[in-house]
Amino acid sequence: xxxxxxxxxxxxxxxxxxxxxxxxxxxxxxxxxxxxxxxxxxxxxxxxxxxxxxxxxxxxxxxxxxxxxxxxxxxxxxxxxxxxxxxxxxxxxxxxxxxxxxxxxxxxxxxxxxxxxxxxxxxxxxxxxxxxxxxxxxxxxxxxxxxxxxxxxxxxxxxxxxxxxxxxxxxxxxxxxxxxxxxxxxxxxxxxxxxxxxxxxxxxxxxxxxxxxxxxxxxxxxxxxxxxxxxxxxxxxxxxxxxxxxxxxxxxxxxxxxxxxxxxxxxxxxxxxxxxxxxxxxxxxxxxxxxxxxxxxxxxxxxxxxxxxxxxxxxxxxxxxxxxxxxxxxxxxxxxxxxxxxxxxxxxxxxxxxxxxxxxxxxxxxxxxxxxxxxxx
Length: 377
Prior knowledge:
It contains nine helices and 19 strands. The chain is of the alpha/beta class.
């Protein structure tokens, strides 16, 4: 079995490490901060392959759908292994239109997504309010997606950490990797400060920080950048919540948790690693949520935070082997990190263990950016 070193202990790095450690590999994960407290902690946990499907993203939709299908089994396996609940919920997702213009745009996406075979139901305003009585009285229409579910991403992180460690994996927190060292054209070791860690296989799963690792040739350096997102949580009465389904409105999404928290997100900003919460960002989220669910104005603010999505040039991940032998990529998941965890863990671990590249990840090799790089040279 290969000795594997994973850079990054978010849901992607932890899930790959768990699968490999459970298969008998010696696995070390190195994390710059606390395990799971980057983008994985900041996320909302939506598993929305259906309603997020957009024209021009057919291959990404196929990847998202595969992973969405894997999630029930993955959640059950993770809960059984860790002994922790991960908050998988299957009520489905509502998408709300608040004006005639919103409804026209919603109808366009509805027709496109139905053409892909996605199970969706068009709802009148009255039908939508029968499902969610606290929706705005000005609602124009809605779409119900029964297969788009949610999971509590923070519970998933905690469960993955425990599952990985129980499988014999080693976790090194507050251990930022400075460089990947190569020997004879092959990834051979990590440098962490003055220390060196040898490995047969290195997995780069450092999210928005992936491009900060030195030592890699240009063609193997993933073009990942941070996409800032501001989010907040309100506190509902868990016995009588204002909302039970995940809700997408034109300006915000709302995700209810079992404990009464209502997650509201998220801005999308090209601000680098700026950790600031801004008045404008928070106002935009609250206003967007309030227009869809007016009752939130009576709720207490529970938490506000900032996360950094790992964005790529085409907003799709980089998965599988790289131009450097022994270096495997699992980064650039942008807004789909939680959704894509099961398929990424399965495909990357299968490649490391058997040398097989799953057909569903072939379109997401880093070499798809090679032509663009040549043009810009």
